[in-house]
Design goal:
mainly alpha
Length: 212
């Protein structure tokens, strides 16, 4: 199973980046930076939430919803053509609130700092991207016959790249623990810009994005 960052490098991913970029009126390279950082963070947050029985049931229920069954991926031209429907953005807003909770502003702030995009624009990008991410998860959960919290944890772990290097998981956890006061940004910046020396994996990819 491909990881979530492999998706962004695929033809489907390029269509998503282009569509989100046009919808939010942000440059494609900046949009890609935001999505490359944000999607693993959202996945890690979902994995953390799904580690409790209640969280797992909630996520499995959301993935069984027709809105998140993967059909959104089958008609991206329709989704982005003429502007994304407000219902989709409202759904995205709810997904972000549910997944990130009170960490949402801190997460968006850090991603904005690193990508050079203002907070409101980061929020707009994530509101469009969140329902698409849920569609990816919904499609994968059907293809893999996910029927238990254990299956769900395996699916999320696989999309995150399985047992990645500890510093990469620490990077995600550190962003998720951001409380919005700005003090964590320098720590995370150090990890993104110089923490991972290896070329592969999430840390290498994030470091490469910012020219380090």
């Amino acid at each position: 199973m491909s990881g979530i960052l492999d998706l962004l490098n695929s033809d489907l991913g390029k269509t998503i980046i282009s569509g989100v970029s046009n919808e939010t009126r942000q440059p494609q390279n900046k949009t890609q930076d935001v999505l490359t950082m944000a999607l693993p963070v959202l996945m890690a947050a979902m994995k953390r939430n799904a580690s409790t029985p209640e969280g797992a049931q909630g996520l499995m229920g959301a993935l069984s919803n027709k809105k998140h069954d993967g059909s959104i991926l089958d008609n991206l031209g329709g989704l982005f053509g003429g502007g994304v429907n407000d219902d989709v953005k409202t759904d995205g807003d709810k997904i972000l609130g549910h997944v990130l909770g009170n960490r949402r502003q801190g997460v968006e702030k850090i991603i904005g700092e690193k990508s050079g995009i203002d907070l409101a624009s980061v929020g707009n990008i994530l509101k469009v991207a969140a329902p698409i991410l849920m569609g990816v998860l919904g499609k994968q959960s059907r293809q893999n016959n996910v029927s238990s919290p254990n299956d769900l944890g395996g699916l999320l772990g696989g999309l995150l790249g399985g047992n990645q290097a500890k510093e990469e998981q620490s990077f995600l956890e550190k962003i998720l623990d951001a409380d919005g006061d700005g003090s964590v940004i320098d720590d995370v910046a150090g990890m993104v810009l110089g923490g991972s020396k290896k070329k592969g994996g999430l840390g290498g990819l994030l470091g490469g994005l910012f020219g380090k």
